[in-house]
Amino acid sequence: MSQRRYAIIGTGGLGGFYGGRLARAGRDVHFLLHGDYRHVRDCGLRVDSVEGDFVLPSVRAYGRAADMPRCDVVAVALKTTANHLLPELLGPVIADDGVVLVLQNGLGVEEQVAEIVGPDRVMGGLCFLCSSKVGPGHIRHLDYGYITLAEYDSRHRPRGITQRMRAIGGDFQAAGIRINYAEDLVLARWKKLVWNIPFNSLSVMLDATTDRIMANGHSRALAEGLMREVAAAASAAAGRETPEAFIQSQLDDTARMAPYSPSMLLDCRAGRPMEIEAIFGAPLRAAAGAGCLTPRIETMYQLLKFKDEANQRGTAF
Amino acid sequence: MSQRRYAIIGTGGLGGFYGGRLARAGRDVHFLLHGDYRHVRDCGLRVDSVEGDFVLPSVRAYGRAADMPRCDVVAVALKTTANHLLPELLGPVIADDGVVLVLQNGLGVEEQVAEIVGPDRVMGGLCFLCSSKVGPGHIRHLDYGYITLAEYDSRHRPRGITQRMRAIGGDFQAAGIRINYAEDLVLARWKKLVWNIPFNSLSVMLDATTDRIMANGHSRALAEGLMREVAAAASAAAGRETPEAFIQSQLDDTARMAPYSPSMLLDCRAGRPMEIEAIFGAPLRAAAGAGCLTPRIETMYQLLKFKDEANQRGTAF
Fold it and tell me: For the residues of A224-281, what is the DSSP string, one character each?
């Protein structure tokens, strides 16, 4: 039985699902909450999942990071739009030899954490998950769930598969979560962007799930054009190659899968801020820095920025 | 007093306004109608206009082109989405020495008419007008109204300002319509696209009027990027130059003008087909034929095509 203590920084659809699974499997898990802190403290967590519903009537819930114990694995499960809060959230929680597991979307998120806790205490976790919070302490897991783990390197080199990756991965596997190990975090991040950039932006701007985007010849061609620009940016900005066969398999897999609402579409429909800077802004800046033109991505970014600002003006916070 | 007889092919917001003004000024005007033919035949036309409301209790209304007399000036005021009807509409109406005045948006519309009536009987009319039909036989003119006239040339050469341009222009001027004369139809069409391509597409995809597009730094930058691609396409595909100062003045004028809903936004909101092929498809094909890359325009085209098809699926016709 593992002695590792876990912190879940941000108990939403993602943090609530993974943290809930770890807790159900007997791990020592400490949940940081915001809006529904009192509810979860008093009533626990409920997870409705395609892999089986469960309730945790009593969980270790916190309303402030300063009240949490030091943890060996601090899982960052906030939306990147809240990353300005990370300095105050991570400092009190991470154990001296602990690691921050960044379960966020986009590019450059591990760098932000490394600036706070140092480069040797950062691991990337790329989540392929469809899950959302539908009420206080109430998570609905709709599909997928696997995580790709990879070590962060301050000079962006592949770090291979380390012992602590396998240790943490083992805890998740014991909780029924499928884990992949990647040798190269940078490549894994860019490969995920190959899917995330087209389907997050098109789903929002067309208000459509993946099946409708793939069924229309024009939006499908645009998705493919966006994928090629991401691949060109990965090559120019990071020296990482995402082969043509990978792009084709991403398109084919998306055409075959059940209608899917990317996270940005869910955020937009719910009036929440969208993760535009992490998923679009950071890759665009990397491409521009390498002299790589990405006009289609830039166009989608500009459209999304307008939409996000209009959404946020219309929403009370 | 002019003896020219006018036909208005399509009595919507545009045809009803210009035709109504000509009729009010005493011209002999014959209106082709579709949905509201009986209403206009029995009750006439009503035009609510920022330049003064008026009612024409009795107008020459027709439900079929075959019933119309031969006319000296046949003004095409249909949406380009109905241009497949032109062969049957123009043939019975145009006098032997008559001219078809193409009051439509986009590129290549005069070519379509020239194929039907021959290249010497075609004149272009570029309308800067905000007007729509708000009920049977009821037009609402909100702003603008001037027309730029230019002769069509089958080899795309500037044809200068002809006597028949001045004759027709004089009839419109006598009806209180401001007229510009352009020597080069091709240049005039591309210059209009410099505005129409960014603001029609952005207004639809962002569901926003021009003031909001200009007030947001991201959408304003995208409008400028689209304008530059149109200018590059005009240069490569047609050898026409739209100088940097023209682009800047278009942006500045748009920022200064009252909130404006481009025609494509009005069509989209009303569930009507959008004029995507005339305003986007034809320029894109011209650019591609000249080896000119226009990825931003192509992106907007692909988004609009999805939106239009979704709109039309949701609408009963």
Answer: HHHHHHHHHHHHHHH-----HHHHHHHHHHHHHSPP---HHHHHHHTTPPP-HIIIII
